[in-house]
Amino acid sequence: MRKLNISGNWKLNKTLAETKALLAVLKSELAGVKKTEIVVCPTYVSLATSAEMLIDSNIKLGAQNLFWEESGAFTGEVSGLQLKAIGCNYVIIGHSERRQYFGETDETVNKRLKSALQNELLPIVCVGETLEEREIGKTFDIISEQVQGALSGISKDEMQKITLAYEPVWAIGTGKTATPEQAQEVHAFIREKLTKLFGNSVAENVTIQYGGSVKPSNAYELLSQNDIDGALVGGASLDVESFAAIVQAAENIEG
Question: How far apart are alpha carbons 30 and 255 in whole angstroms?
Answer without folding.
Answer: 20
